[in-house]
Write a structure and sequence with these properties.
This protein has helices at 3-11, 27-39, 57-75, 80-105, 118-130, 134-149, 156-166, 168-178, 183-203, 205-210, 218-223, 228-232, 238-257, 269-289, 303-319. With 323 residues, it is mainly α.
């Protein structure tokens, strides 16, 4: 049994909690559960850095735990139909969470007495405090559902449309936590999140292909003369090198276009957003440094490099160079 299969057995729709044989989870227990999820996953860089204001950290944990569970329901379930069924259950939990919030606001009786997952128990006060839009969470679920139906993209426009659901909603939720939602900040945030998503795609070309997914648009492969047969052989050649150089530069441009967001955020939040941008750029730098051969080795930001990036972001904050 994998780690996520164990989680699903404990907290999934067929678990004792949802069968009514276990006592409901308290808010404090749910918050601790989300914190454990957030701090237990090291990806390219920590979900919550030391620079993030302490009062915001739990709220970041709650949003991350939602994303982590949705992602795992999409990626850790081998059968696509089962994954779609579980994602539909996850959406029903989201709907019930918002309905409960609405009922509480209207001082009405809850619309349902069924069990809520710990993630939603912890998330509900965050939703209320920062007026988080339900549509952003639903967009993320739609993206994971799309992964079950679409394994390859014909055009970059199609890939961007996917990013609008798979990445950009996270940044928009973060802006709500920062209480900095404007048309300008939303545009910059979308650019950063799309750039980060693209950097992650180019970092994971080999890993994604191994599970049957190709995010490099077919039109781009054809433009640079990289064939499907070469893709299936994981072949590194001049055509693939040129293709990846093109994609890396495109992702870098999205990240850089989001830099103006940093100066529009309050206090130490500038450090965290700068850190995410620099982390994405560092992934792209690693890809470039290894001559764009992501078939041979997966580029990754080390903990030491993260520490250096954090120090540099702090210095930019102190000296005002982000402005």
């Amino acid at each position: 049994m994998t780690a996520f299969e164990h989680e699903l057995a404990v907290w999934g729709p067929d678990s004792p909690c949802f069968q009514g044989t276990d006592a409901p989870v308290s808010l404090a227990e749910a918050q601790a559960y989300c914190r454990k999820i957030a701090l237990g996953h090291y990806e390219n860089f920590p979900v919550v850095s030391w620079a993030l204001p302490r009062e915001l950290r739990p709220h970041f944990y709650h949003i991350y735990a939602f994303c982590r569970w949705a992602d795992d329901l999409g990626d850790e379930i081998e059968d696509a139909d089962q994954s779609l069924s579980l994602l539909a259950w996850w959406r029903s939990q989201l709907v019930e969470c918002y309905q409960g919030i609405q009922s509480a606001a209207e001082d009405a009786q809850p619309s349902s007495t069924s069990c809520l997952h710990p993630v939603f128990i912890a998330l509900a006060p965050t939703i209320v405090k920062y007026d988080l839009p339900q549509s952003a969470f639903d967009d993320l679920i739609q993206a994971f559902e799309q992964d079950q139906r679409i394994s390859e993209y014909q055009t970059f426009a199609e890939l961007l449309s996917y990013c609008q659901r798979s990445a950009n909603p996270v940044g928009r939720l973060v802006l709500h936590l920062c209480e900095s939602v404007t048309e300008e900040t939303l545009a910059c945030s979308d650019s950063i999140c799309t750039g980060l998503q693209l950097a992650n795609f180019w970092q994971d070309v080999a890993r994604d292909f191994a599970i049957g997914r190709i995010y490099l648009p077919r039109e781009d492969c054809e433009q640079f003369g990289y064939t499907r047969e070469q893709f299936e052989r994981n072949e590194f050649n001049a055509a693939f090198q040129r293709l990846m150089e093109y994609e890396v530069q495109r992702a870098r441009q999205y990240l850089l276009e989001g830099v103006p967001l940093i100066a529009q955020l309050p206090g130490r939040l500038q450090v965290d957003i700068d850190l995410f941008i620099q982390g994405g750029l560092k992934i792209l730098d690693h890809i470039e440094r290894q001559q764009f051969n992501v078939w041979k080795q997966r580029p990754q930001v080390s903990r030491f490099e993260f520490g250096v990036l954090l120090f540099q972001s702090l210095m930019r904050r102190i000296t005002g160079r982000n402005r």
